[in-house]
Amino acid sequence: MKRKNVFVRLIALLLVLTATVMLFACTPEQPQTPDNSNPPNNDENEQPSVDTSLQVNVTVLSGTTGFSMAPLMQSHADGKATLNYNFKVEADATNVNAALINGTVDIAALPTNAASVVYNKTGGAIQILTINTQGVLYLLDNGNNITSFEDLKGKTVAAPAQNPTFIFQYLCEQNGLKVGKVGDTAADVIIDNGFTSPAELQSNVAAGNVTLAVLPEPLVTITKSANADVKVAMDLTAEWNKVSPENSLVQGCIVVRKEFAEQHPAEVATFLEEYAASVNFLMNNVNEAAEMVAAQGIFAKAPVAAKAIPNCNICYMTGEDMKNAMSSFLTIMMGVQPNSIGGKLPGDDFYYGIK
Length: 355
Known about the structure:
Layout: H1 2-26, E1 55-61, H2 64-67, H3 70-77, E2 84-90, H4 93-102, E3 107-111, H5 112-121, E4 126-134, E5 137-141, E6 155-158, H6 163-174, E7 179-180, E8 189-192, H7 198-206, E9 212-216, H8 219-226, E10 231-235, H9 236-243, E11 250-257, H10 258-263, H11 265-284, H12 286-295, H13 302-308, E12 314-317, H14 319-336
């Protein structure tokens, strides 16, 4: 009897063990609670911090190309800018070119063709951040009653050397005129490059010694203020848009050294934000911005700057719009005078932010 009871107990124990095993085998596995004490590394999604102590050397050209930098310069002078800027105003673009090449300036304002020249000369060491000035050229007339290119047949037009001459030459040719230099009797229109500087040409137009001339703002405003007989015969930006891709006459830009842009992307992004705000302020507060232009040494006379700003076609153009406009302009200039852009078109790496 005793053996029988032991046997029964063993059978019961085996049944309990079997049931327990089956219970665990059929119970679904419970999810584990994640350990958040060591969160995953998401550095690639984090924005780099801005180094506000880093000195950013910025060179600004005096005149139209530098107008839109004035509010940012004033903001920095007032201690309100984010970055630690070191601004310098320069009258000669060739000095800016040299500073970009030797690395003593990080960001600079340049004529668009000069930016292409520096890019080609340095093997791609600079990039264009934004176009800041479209067409600023006008044909001034004192008593010739010019209303179209057809009216220029048999005339001599004075123009500053390099870009203004090449742009005006292109427009004349697109309107069916053969262009020549002084002494070319077979030409429909003569372009006179005999003046050493735009300022010298401007003073001669104001004095009445030259009756047809291509000049940029703000020299146009100065000339008209000095001589009431001088009129704007043609807006060359409007004429450009008739024969070329619209808004592709671009004459001023902001560039950055490629090495600086690669090493300091957060600072470049911050500069672009502050510069865009600077352009916006200039366009919406012309009189106040003109005072800043004078205060920062970009142009001497605030009242003249205030009159000129609405005619300067100042803009803020980046990305694909910038690339399309700039490449169209440089392609046209390549056809007129290859040396004016450095002998060849820049590669895609010339355009900041374009892959």
